[in-house]
């Protein structure tokens, strides 16, 4: 066990925890996201064995990117925009409603993709769009009360703008499964799909990742930007969003020169940020944690993805095979970068929220555990080994021709890591949380069964005495 003071150093002193929403709001998003993570892992394994019908690849991608990553982003922004910006969340009610729309909308959407019920994609896609637009409005209004914006807030504002466009494109694609919707417009369905995927991954997801890591990477390594970090940050902050928009427009309107310019700016932005993150990790002055271990994988994956992708996108940025970069780098981006950043972040964010609500008022009154004491270090080591192994096997299948069994083995190993990861985080909520998992997921129902929510977020039954 590390000294108490060093493990508590990860609690930033400048955040405004009084501005945070009730614990059930972000944790409800995280728990739902973890359920979609397990579902995505299972669909990936069954799909690799040919055991699923319908559009299994689309279902797999939507479960992981929309269900796990984007729902987690919704919960994280809802929690930390008020905390970092020192302003109240615009509407707690909307933050609860957004999840009640997105979760069933995505579940129905995936079932329709697998079952071939394409006529129902539009209604479920409409639920998704409405839920995400409520989120964009709610967090956007919260951000507007926090001017001027810092680097993280600027990235989050951009990500919200991307998300509004991405969901509109997504609903158009869903409607297009059963009826023509692009007549008279100089774009094709394939171009719209490519632009949708580009803005989703490089716009919404990576922009959010970069914005969050400017805060988290500095905060939890206890190291500051210095020297070359500042020009590299300008390259990313100015060039990267221009690149994302140009790449999306080039793909949408079949304009190779525009797409190539955008592709080069995107690669340059990823390289710049990857170097900044790597320098933060090398300069870390605190004990190495599961969070930082996973960030190290992400930093290495960013630079490897850029090296493989640059020549491919220079040659043809519009190729369907190069949608997410070089064909051999998809797992580097989606699993190595996005996946490991979310894994690492949740290993601090979930215990942090639970700790603040349960233990922060007890400081100085008795023994209080550190944030990193709330989860099981041994389980964290097991899930890291399984996830890293699964990532390595799946990544290898993109470089060399391996039997289908290898892909299934890599997916199974990753799924094992998902299960252990989810179990570890849920144990934090169950053991240390001031509310049960039932109350986290359905706080209104929990209150309706005879419980009431304390100010620290717990649900406590009324005494009958």
Automatic annotation (TrEMBL):
The keyword Transmembrane applies. The chain crosses the membrane at residues 30-51, 63-85, 97-118, 124-144, 156-177, 197-217, 261-282, 294-313, 333-356, 384-402, 408-429. Keywords: Membrane, Transmembrane, Transmembrane helix. This is Uncharacterized protein. The keyword tRNA processing does not apply. InterPro entries: Cyt_c_oxase-like_su1_sf.
């Amino acid at each position: 066990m590390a000294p108490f003071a060093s493990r508590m150093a990860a609690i930033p002193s400048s955040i405004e925890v009084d501005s945070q929403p009730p614990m059930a709001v972000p944790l409800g998003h995280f728990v739902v996201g973890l359920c979609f993570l397990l579902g995505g892992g299972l669909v990936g394994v069954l799909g690799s064995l040919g055991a699923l019908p319908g559009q299994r690849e689309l279902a797999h991608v939507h479960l992981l990117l929309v269900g796990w990553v984007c729902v987690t982003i919704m919960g994280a922004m809802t929690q930390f925009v008020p905390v970092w910006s020192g302003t109240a969340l615009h509407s707690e009610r909307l933050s609860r409603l957004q999840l009640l729309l997105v979760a069933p909308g995505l579940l129905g959407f995936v079932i329709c993709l697998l079952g071939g019920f394409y006529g129902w994609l539009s209604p479920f896609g409409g639920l998704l769009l409405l839920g995400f637009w409520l989120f964009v409005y709610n967090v956007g209004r919260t951000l507007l009360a926090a001017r001027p914006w810092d680097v993280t807030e600027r990235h989050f504002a951009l990500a919200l703008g991307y998300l509004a466009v991405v969901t509109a494109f997504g609903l158009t694609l869903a409607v297009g499964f059963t009826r023509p919707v692009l007549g008279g417009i100089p774009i094709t369905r394939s171009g719209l799909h490519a632009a949708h995927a580009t803005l989703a991954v490089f716009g919404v997801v990576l922009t959010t990742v970069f914005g969050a890591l400017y805060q988290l990477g500095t905060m939890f390594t206890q190291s500051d930007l210095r020297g070359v970090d500042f020009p590299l940050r300008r390259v990313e902050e100015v060039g990267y969003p221009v690149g994302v928009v140009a790449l999306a427009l080039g793909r949408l309107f079949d304009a190779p020169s525009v797409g190539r310019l955008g592709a080069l700016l995107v690669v340059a932005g990823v390289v710049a940020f990857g170097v900044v993150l790597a320098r933060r990790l090398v300069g870390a002055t605190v004990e190495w944690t599961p969070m930082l271990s996973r960030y190290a994988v992400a930093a290495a994956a960013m630079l490897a993805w850029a090296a493989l992708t640059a020549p491919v996108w220079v040659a043809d940025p519009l190729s369907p095979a190069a949608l997410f970069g070089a064909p051999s780098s998809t797992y580097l981006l989606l699993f190595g970068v996005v996946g490991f950043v979310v894994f690492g972040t949740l290993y601090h964010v979930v215990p942090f929220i639970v700790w603040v609500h349960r233990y922060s008022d007890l400081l100085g009154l008795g023994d209080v555990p550190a944030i990193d004491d709330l989860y099981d270090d041994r389980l964290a080591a097991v899930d890291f080994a399984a996830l890293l192994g699964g990532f390595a096997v799946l990544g290898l299948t993109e470089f060399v021709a391996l039997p289908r069994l290898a892909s299934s083995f890599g997916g199974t190993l990753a799924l094992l890591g998902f299960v252990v990861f989810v179990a570890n985080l849920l144990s934090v909520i169950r053991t240390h949380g001031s509310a049960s998992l039932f109350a986290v997921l359905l706080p209104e129902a929990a209150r309706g069964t005879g419980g009431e929510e304390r100010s620290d977020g717990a649900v406590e039954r009324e005494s009958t005495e």
